[in-house]
Amino acid sequence: MKRSVTETAKKTAAKPATGTGTAKKAVKKAAKKVATGPATGTGAGKKAADKPAARTGAAKKTATEPATATGTAKKPGKPESHLAMVRRARRINRELAEIYPYAHPELDFRNPFELLVATVLSAQTTDLRVNQTTPALFAAYPTPEDMAAAVPEELEAIIRPTGFFRAKARSLMGLSASLRDDFGGEVPGRLADLVTLPGVGRKTANVVLGNAFGVPGITVDTHFGRLVRRWKWTEQEDPEKVEAEVAEIFPKSEWTMLSHRVVFHGRRICHSRKPACGACPIAPLCPAYGEGETDPEKARKLLKYEMGGYPGQRLSPPPDYPGRPAPPLGAG
What we know:
Layout: H1 2-14, H2 23-35, H3 82-99, H4 112-121, H5 127-140, H6 144-148, H7 152-159, H8 165-182, H9 191-194, H10 202-212, H11 222-230, H12 239-247, H13 255-268, H14 296-300
């Protein structure tokens, strides 16, 4: 069991699902969509490529309606049925799978313990900052036994860049002691066990289960919650209720990769304060089109990470990731 768990974690850490075609082709494909406006590409509204909704000036009025094939405001009609919403949601997932075939967890890890620790550290900070911090952390404390026996002040000094370092240090030492004393030094592969660990909630547990053990789960972070509400998949604010409602829309086999794709899209295009609507390949499927920048040229300047030609968040990204690795802490 120990060998299979480790192999699963290493496989997930090093090689993401490749989807259709190579990652580099996917980025070029997505860039081609962006270059011609928000409605081009692989079935997300090819007919709308030449007439994006922004051109009519009706985008603001249709903020709660998806862009249509003609690029004009969709006339008020019957509310979207649940069945229609499910079909639209599944189509969005298919589109995202083509745009981000290389979607993966953006935390560097080599085994379940490293993923668990990195996920705890990621609270209230970026994955980039965690990835820049964990090399020194795991060099000093490679096992739960090592971390449980750490001198608190020394552990705090290492993880200080991630913020809330005292509380996080207590969680890391507590969960490490629990792994040592209650689970034989191994990260458990059950949700019920994981959530008993200090500092580990349902979100963290689903990250670990989905990416270190291959157990499907939906990870509701701030990006995921924001996007699924914009897309009208749910109106819930509570993460557990969001998870439950979204889980009913998709087959269980899709849960983990769906989470990665949605988070990737939220970090690269569908930003919190200023989404790049005019550069979004799935704009025709989005009820919130128009909340952000609809001018294609201005929207393209808002793209992040590989979509904008910038480094990613991982120092050691999977082989198929088409962007540049992140710089180590203190570089640049």
